[in-house]
Amino acid sequence: MRVGKKHYKTVWFSKGTVYLIDQHKLPFKFKIVRSRTYQATAKAIKDMVVRGAGAIGVTAGFGLVQAVYACPLYLKRAALLSRVKKAKQTIDSTRPTARNLFYATERVWEAVKANAQSVLMARRASEREALSIAKEDEEAGKTIGMIGEKLIHQNMGIMTHCNAGWLAFSDWGTALAPLYVAKRKGKKFFVFCNETRPRSQGANLTAWELGNEAIPHAVVADTSAGSLMQQKRIQMIIVGADRIAANGDVANKIGTYQVAVLAKENNIPFYVAAPLATFDKHIKSGRQIPIEKRSGNELFNRKWFKALQKSKVENFAFDITPARYIKGIITERGIIRANRHAIQKNLS
Amino acid sequence: MRVGKKHYKTVWFSKGTVYLIDQHKLPFKFKIVRSRTYQATAKAIKDMVVRGAGAIGVTAGFGLVQAVYACPLYLKRAALLSRVKKAKQTIDSTRPTARNLFYATERVWEAVKANAQSVLMARRASEREALSIAKEDEEAGKTIGMIGEKLIHQNMGIMTHCNAGWLAFSDWGTALAPLYVAKRKGKKFFVFCNETRPRSQGANLTAWELGNEAIPHAVVADTSAGSLMQQKRIQMIIVGADRIAANGDVANKIGTYQVAVLAKENNIPFYVAAPLATFDKHIKSGRQIPIEKRSGNELFNRKWFKALQKSKVENFAFDITPARYIKGIITERGIIRANRHAIQKNLS
What we know:
Chain A is an alpha/beta fold. The first copy, chain A, contains eleven helices and 17 strands.
């Protein structure tokens, strides 16, 4: 999407190198990071230089291609597969929650397995597969944008949580894609971005994206979300997803669950936008989704910990929103109801 | 309450000077501020050197006494009243939401009016009244603690929002007072403090208070509140109040409303603790309570505003929790149900 007058993607691959927009530095600095090895790419995912379900998936796919690139051309099938498998384990262990990561590494791994007669063939096949994943991610975002746009009415107040914009995917994004399409169609609306502590992706990334696309918006503390709904300033909520269980339960950024509960209490439709790659048919319900806990350093600095040595910090990265709070899941195949039957029908 | 091995109050008055614990500096530095004029005291309230419903009230009362102190002894009734009235307006305009502020300035003002024959008499009467307010505030806190303590069971997980501890009052506090009493009785329980953006009083003040009293606790991002309830780690919620309408609607720190909605959804009792001074019988319902909006600088620094020039910030200081979400209001006269009838019976 737009950065100044140029068009960028969040992540791309060229001649064995993965290029990433450094999301640590936004909105203060726009910087591209080059990652030349799968180990460096795995570290970039773990350290959240790149974050967001789709962007993690696309990056992970490219990372696994780098592992194939790192293999000497003379390697035989067994040795090649052993090295790539090890790389896959390294990449898979970076972040536990987002489905898209495993979706991508599994697809690239299958491509390698099917073409392991020679390293060169495996390289070509894996790169083709990883590029397809990136392309599909981008196209899914654009389609989600076109489908979701129909939900946006003139002068609506729309709330979003965290960042499920183009920075969270290869391009377009999911929760923000309908806004980008609506803006291009000339619709007027106002967006409230929840700050989204601890990492403040709403304040730092979503606000930056919306500013670049000239969409009017305000950032609010996470504590204001309910009050804004109560004040009738929100007519729709759209968020992204990191993993969707077979029954429609959604794992997404910590704080999503409470926004969904507040939406229900205030009769505001709550939508999740996600590509089919985010669905995990092997997971029956949200209870089975592993929830990442991260360091308290994401919340407070050293000075705070020094002053409050008797205080603990608990820091969850995600939470689970039960399907009953979700009005619909906006996918590239249309808006799916959040229940087992509808999901099964659309995934097959 | 305890600071190291010494006992402190949040605010006290001696020989015309108001002494305040500087709440801007906590938990990093423990510093006492001296305020020698009513103007300086009003500024300390406005700038939130002192904050919290009760502490604001006590400080405001002392501030108005300072205005009487500033009057030359020869002043006649009309001139005296005119000066004190002006001072009252200055103090009343500092913060619009907390009932205790107006409660205190009205009481001191009445004492001045009834003793305006001479400046000396007005001085003595106003000081006596302001000291009574401080004493009543402290005693109400202690009684609330003893009444609320009965709700605390062994090994409970208790959530609180913002800071309604002793720093928010003259001593003891409201929401935290039951915890202090329970701790002294040897009960074991664990407290979750919501960070409470934008000003993080939960992280900075409540955590500091609980640490000083050796009560086990963890600080969490405001976005984690719902998830913790969903995980069944919270069995009770207690918060304070800045103003309570005649129908039981409660104005309190922004984010309280959403914690209350989440409590209802998860079948967790949600209590408000407040002295009778916080009730405002002239206000029929929460809709009539003025809600303070404050500068976006409370949320983000200059660097952020410079990087995101197209982004607005909306920053509410308080929200309204409708009475139907409240299990009971813990007051110095017992636990009152949050409805017009019960409140009327107990206030009269």
